[in-house]
Amino acid sequence: MNSARNIVQNTLVPHQAFETAKKAVEQCFAYADNAAEPICFALIGESRTGKTRVQEECVALHPPVRNKDGLRSPILWVKTPSKPTVKALAEVMLQELQDPKPNSGTENSMTTRMVNLLRKCETRMVILDEFQHFYDKTTQKVMFHVSDWLKVLADDAGVALVVSGLPTCNAVIEQNEQLAGRFVAPVLMPRFDWTLPAHRDEFTSIVGAFHESIQTYFDLPNLAGGEMAFRCYCGTGGLVGYLAKFLRQAVWNALDSGTTRITLADLQAAHDQAVWQRSGLVGVARPFAAKFEAIPTSELLERVRSLRAPVSPPPKAKRSRAGGAVKIGVQQALSAT
Q: Which tens digits make up the pLDDT trace of 256-270?
């Protein structure tokens, strides 16, 4: 049963948004060498919509390789620091490229080493995850200096640039005119919407694929059945990441209990552990409880959609005369559309 431990995370279920995003990244990579200027685009979506999995798949197709001439890294994939400064971002990038002293030097010297290493490692694409960190929610500023640096780096090194993160990513790009000029239209990875037949069918197919994998080892309710598929939707808000998270927990719990059967009560317990206790909806019964009424009413669907609701982009800020960003008020940020 050891092979059952990773059955959920090893089940890759491509769907339309996933395939569109993956194709966009691959196309960007394929044409990076011949572009007159760096190709840039943003991969945008809420947490748990599959953005990181897209990046993992693309990096796996072009993995770093060390040979007699040194490191060859076709794609440099890093996570944006929570407080991104030029030096902080340069450090994580230099570290990934195996620079012996990634945190040493001035901004200029670190940038020079970065450009040289990107060329030496034959890097064609840089992927920055968690790009929403370029918007500081505490100070309500866009990090203009580091975003300017990123544009110059892409130009000087001649690499394609993909940024990924929450919807606030788009606001960061739009507020930097020079950076925005480099970007094509963003690729969106939305959550599934039960009211749309195409979304409903695709979500049900994804649930069915997970069920097929899990039933190799366990006896469990038909997750892709009409009522059970809707329960899964209500328990995840249409976010595939939450679906995988709670099903993985159900498998782990069954393994720890030494059983080959997963019941509705087991699904409820796993969902409570993995999702509900953190993101439970007020006034909505637990979706795997026996008393749950699996009826897609407008009120229920509206509450379900609030599970990890999208983050609204901040209103557009303007540069001050000193080149910084003008602060915006809390109410402005909260009411932005």
A: 999 999 999 999 999
What long-range pairs does 167-170 form, CB within 8 A, spacing at least 24?
167/44, 167/45, 167/46, 167/132, 167/310, 167/311, 167/312, 167/313, 168/132, 168/135, 168/311, 168/313, 168/314, 169/42, 169/44, 169/131, 169/132, 169/134, 170/42, 170/44, 170/313
Average pLDDT over residues 314-337: 36
To 10 degrees, the CA torsion angle through 214, 218, 221, 222?
A: 40
Q: What is the structure's pLDDT at 253?
A: 96
Collect all residues with Cβ–Cβ distance below 8 Å to 47 and sequence separation of at least 6: 166, 239, 241, 308
Cα separation, 204 vs 15, in Å, equals: 11
The half-sphere exposure of 305 on its side-chain side, counting CA atoms within 13 A, is 13
Looking at residues 139-157, what average pLDDT do you find?
82
pLDDT digits (tens, 9 = 90+) for 6-23: 888 888 776 888 899 999
CA dihedral 158, 162, 168, 171 (to 10 degrees): 40
